[in-house]
Structures are given as C-alpha cells and as structure tokens.
Amino acid sequence: MRVFHLIKSLGRGGAEMLLPEMIRVTDRSKVDVSVGYFLPQKDALVPVLRELDVPVVCFDAPRKRDMFRRLPEVTRHLRVLSPDVVHCHLPLAGVVGRIAARRLGIPNVYTEHNVQGLYHPLTFASNKWTWRLQDHVIACSGGVADSIAERVSTRVPVTTVRNGVSLHRFQRSTEARSALRTSLGLDDTHQVVGTVAVFREQKRLDLWLQVAAHVVQRNEHARFLVVGDGPLRSEMEARVADLGLSDKVVMPGLIDDVIPWLSAMDVYMMTSDFEGLPVALLEAMATGLPAVCTDVGGIAEVVRTGVEGHVVPAGQALSLGDIVLDLFHDPDTLAQMSTRARERIAAAFSMERMNREVLSVYEGVVRGR
After folding, report:
1. Which ranges of 105-204 does DSSP label H, i.e. alpha helix?
2. Residue 262's closest CA among 201, 197, 337?
3. pLDDT tens for each residue of 108-118
4. Other CB atoms within 10 A of residue 367 CB
5. What average pLDDT does this structure show over 115-127?
6. Cβ 268 vs Cβ 289: under 8 Å
7. What integer pLDDT is reported at residue 109 of this predicted model?
8. CB–CB of 209/232 below 8 Å?
9. CA-CA distance, 141 to 139, in Å (whole number)?
10. Measured between alpha carbons, how far apart are the two ends of the chain, in Å?
C-alpha cells in the first residue's frame, strides 16, 4: 500500500511530531510512505523523515493563503505518485488534498487534530465546504469527534483513533533528571511543575503562571519549567517578571529532546482553553508524570481524576494550584500516580495501537473503492 501524507508544515507541533513516530512503527515492507508539506520555513522534521528513508516534497507556500495556489502542483504530484491513499492533516492541507485526490479518484482520509471552535472562521468555512469530498475522517479524541458531529457533518464516516506515543522513546531517565536539575541549581528538596507547549493563546500560559505564583506563595521549594516558544514569548517573560517569578520559572525555549526536561519534572500541568488530544501530555505521562489539567478536548479521556492526576472543569484552571500543593504534600500519592500515568499510556495510548487503527481505516477506504 502506498500512502501519501499531506500536512501544512513539518515543524515540531503535536500533529507533525506524530508522523515520524508512526512511521517508525510501520512495517515498511507493506506500507510505502511519502510526505508533502507547504510551509518551507517550518521544516525541522524534514531531516528526521529523510533519515527514515521517507521521500519528502515541499510545495513551497510561505504563507497559509498560498497553499490554495499549490493545488495544481499537488494534483500533478499525486498523478505521478499514484498513491493508494492520501492522508491529510489539519484543515488547509485537508482542503487542498481532498480536492486533488477527488479529481484523481484517489481515496482520501483526513485526521482532525482539534475541536472545531479553535479555527479561524475562514479556515473553518473552507474546511466545512470541502468536507464531503473525503472518504473517511479520523478524530484524535472522542471530544474532537463530538465537535465534528455538532459543527461540521455526520455524512462522512468518522472513526476515533486516539493519539499515541512511543513508550520505548519516552521513559524517565534518572541520570538525565539528576544532570539537568543540577545544572538548574535544583536539589532533592525542590518540587518541579512543568509543561511543554507552543506559546500561543489557546494554551493560557498566563493562567499557568498565575497558578505557579499561587503555589510558590505556599511552597518555597516549588519550581517551574515551561519548555517551548512561540508568538507570546515576550508576554510570558513580562508576566514572569510582574509576578515575581524570575527566580522560580525557567523557560529554555525550543528543545529537540524533551525527555531530560520531562524527567526533571514531578508534575505536568496544562491550563488550555482548547485542545484535541495533546501529544505532549501523552509524552509526559509516558515518562511517569502525574498530570493536572483543564477538561478540554480529549484530556479527560486520558487523565482520570484521582488515578493518573486530576482534571478540573474548563474555566477553573486556577484551582489547579491547590491540587499541586496537595500532591507535593503527599509523596506516596504522587509516586502512585506516577506509576499509573505510564501504565495508562501503555494500556491505551501506545503508538503501535494508533498505527494499527489508522492502517485499518486505510484498508477500509481502499476496499470501499
């Protein structure tokens, strides 16, 4: 089977990071994979894919609106490649890919990685307008599937395939934990809350920092790691200073290998307003981190309150501070949740399980033609 993935960019966002991980567990003697993307400035994963012997083509659309102008080029590429399935990711790539695939009679699948309310109105409208041109939709969580049914359409089959991560790659390193914490001036008395995120509005990192401020007022040993970068970087830095957290919060920027940073944490925290099923959360739990999060997207499908962590209603992110303090005062419960977090990922969110379910969708659409 020949599968062509079409995606907006190959940066280091959650949706993009799933591609190489899924390819690593794919039987390449049975599935021939190639990838196309649009934004040339976001190409961090191109070398990773090429190391995996995956052909990659850039359709060179520096701005999002340029993606639609690349429809003829995408169509020509698919005509020559003649894949059995075109698999599109994210709305704008989905629009271009499903039009090109339909013109050529190639089965096409689309993965929806976010709830519909997240998108710009024009993005949402173009996605909805072309929705019926695809053969099957994969939703990355039950919450995403519900948002499709409520706001888009139920006329195209939708299968929920929850995101997965590699348990082999994502596991806690005691050595890396010790080395990184020492380099940051942290010892065994320090208790660390962390997150890995793009610095953008939906993540509500402003609230994340408010929670941090609440925690440090009651626990002088608490420290905070915010790994990532993005358009709100300057606002984050200013907020850290305003809250008096400059000696409590470390923001190292974009990190290629986040495992040492996850290993250095004791609790993983998210305060998002919107999510699909965040890959970073799965990676954190795979490394044995209890998670405290807002109940958005598919998060509550992963984190069970009192088992692997705690989930609070959307809009009540500030209540996470007291939950963190309680966990820090109860090391036995924290240790139990750490073990259960990894067990949860192993049981229901492995990359191997995700890959099997996606291949089943491919086989279904090919048989259907």
Report:
1. 121-129, 142-151, 174-183
2. 197
3. 999 999 888 77
4. 8
5. 86
6. yes
7. 98
8. no
9. 5
10. 14
